[in-house]
Design goal:
Tetracycline Repressor, domain 2; 2 domains; disordered N terminus; 14 helices; mainly alpha; Arc Repressor Mutant, subunit A
């Protein structure tokens, strides 16, 4: 609980407001490369800055010189990881032509690539979302709000322009709904793939991933889709 308590009275100790020079930027990038693997393999708390520095052949103090603290290093690692993921509207044109909910379906159907192709960035994103203290989590939330790395705002505007989303809900509300639900549903799909029995009630047969995605999209479209309003009014 010390992390939560201290976060209420102490400012974050991982912001270095001095812009890095070109040579310094290359060193920072190398540190982030190695740190990303250490955090992914060992977790946030078990990873040690001393081990990262030892692998790089540099003094531990040099890491702190660049990133101020372990939190600061992880925050830069987290941003690198999240920025490596595709945005919603990076879906192929033929998928975008089919509409907002088909874009969602496309990305959900490709969720398993997070395990097979992007395991390290995905592991880092999980640590940032679920395995950090309140201060760092607050900074991560601020990063998502200011940078919007998945292009959620542009994606929701795309849905509005196509007339597929409810006009009585404002953009920020729908963005929040997507932020709250999509990532956690993907986590559930991946958890089920790693442990197929986890989501089965005793005596029941687990549903196929495609069926789960179909049900999720159906529920979401009933909540935020324009057709849900027309059906309700009818």
């Amino acid at each position: 609980m010390s992390g939560i308590g201290s976060s209420l009275v102490s400012p974050p100790r991982y912001r270095n407001n001095v812009p890095p020079r070109p040579r310094s930027e290359a060193k920072r990038a190398r540190i982030i490369d190695v740190a990303m693997r250490h955090f992914a393999e060992q977790g946030y708390h078990a990873a040690r800055v001393a081990d990262i520095a030892a692998e790089l052949g540099i003094a531990k103090g040099l890491v702190f010189q660049h990133f101020v603290s372990k939190d600061g290093l992880f925050f830069e690692v987290y941003k690198r990881a999240v920025r490596s993921f595709a945005a919603y509207l990076d879906a192929p044109q033929e998928v975008r032509d089919r509409g907002f909910f088909e874009v969602l379906r496309y990305w959900l159907a490709r969720t398993e690539h997070l395990l097979h192709e992007d395991w390290i960035p995905y592991r880092i994103s999980l640590l940032g979302n679920y395995g950090t203290d309140l201060t760092l989590k607050r900074e991560i939330n601020r990063f998502h709000m200011t940078e919007d790395p998945y292009g959620t705002v542009a994606f929701v505007k795309f849905g509005f322009e196509r007339g597929e989303l409810r006009q009585d809900l404002d953009l920020e509300m729908i963005v929040s709904i997507l932020d709250w639900t999509i990532e956690r549903f993907q986590d559930a799909l991946l958890t089920e793939e790693l442990d197929p029995g986890l989501f089965r009630r005793q005596g029941e047969i687990g549903e196929r991933k495609e069926a789960r995605i179909h049900q999720f999209i159906d529920l979401l479209s009933r909540a935020i889709g324009a057709d849900s309003i027309r059906t309700h009014r009818a």
